[in-house]
Amino acid sequence: MMNVSSTVPECSALPDDPIVIGATGGSGTRMVRAVLERAGVFMGTIVNETGDCMLFEPLLDRLVNPVLTATRSLDYRAADLPPELLREGVALYRQAVARHLAEAPAHARAWGWKNPRSLYLLPIIAAAFPRLRVVHVVRDGRDMALSRNRLQLAKHYAALFGEPAPVDDPLAACRLWEATNRTAADWAGRELGGRYIRLSFEDICAAPERAVDHLLGRLGLPRAMAGDAAGAVRPPGSLGRWRA
């Protein structure tokens, strides 16, 4: 069980091992969050209808585009960011987490949050929380090209690629999907090692208990809970929509 109190902790005393769920928007992170909650992970109470932790939204809006403008990639070293941007990012994350953990029950087995855009700021999050664990949800890019979720495309395409975002173009959605998933995986696989888990949305939908058992084992959570946690897996009707 994690060691957090029911009051807002001092920033200097925060635990440093969050489980962060990230992805391109519309990849199925809501379902993965529900799985982890069933397994006893505190994922926050200040959330929107899809389970995104809203405490992190302002800092994502503030930080992602300046970071992408400086790096043009999700695979970058925190130390290579402008020093003031890195300092601000670390401070904002630690302040947000202090508020986030204020509602955490003492019996929670672990803690974390779900916000797909976390994928863009993993080096900053790791600088703030050195034992960061990442669950990177990847959905078939052909499905993602046809997704109506264009938030990341509208907000961050121009900063990543240095050109205007063609929001209604499926090929632009493919380009963003490929670049973000590939470069985030490059960074996390190299820097986090076993604390990086790439989870196929199609795999968890096809064999929920097996995929959840593997996920819980990788996170050090009781695998005996896999059956119950897998009950949160409900494949959407949009799965495989590219075939139509």
Structure in words:
This protein has about 240 residues and is of the alpha/beta class. About 45% of the residues lie in helices and about 10% in strands. The chain contains ten helices and five strands; from the N terminus they run βαβααβαβαααβααα. The chain has helices spanning about 30-40, 55-70, 85-100, 120-130, 140-145, 150-160, 170-190, 200-205, 210-220, 225-230; strands at about 20, 40, 110-115, 135-140, 195-200. Strands 2-3-1-4-5 form a five-stranded parallel beta sheet, with helices on both faces. Helix 2 runs antiparallel to helix 3. The protein is globular, with a radius of gyration of 17 Å. About 40% of the residues are buried.
* Biggest beta-sheet profile: 5 strands, parallel
Distance between the termini: 46 Å
Tell me roughly what share of residues is in helical segments: 40-55%
**Proportion of β residues?**
5-15%
How are the elements arranged and paired?
Blueprint: E1 19-22, H1 29-38, E2 41-42, H2 57-71, H3 83-100, E3 110-114, H4 122-128, E4 133-138, H5 141-145, H6 151-161, H7 170-192, E5 196-200, H8 201-206, H9 208-219, H10 226-229
Parallel strand pairs: 1-3, 1-4, 2-3, 4-5
Helix pairs in contact: 2-3, 2-6, 3-4
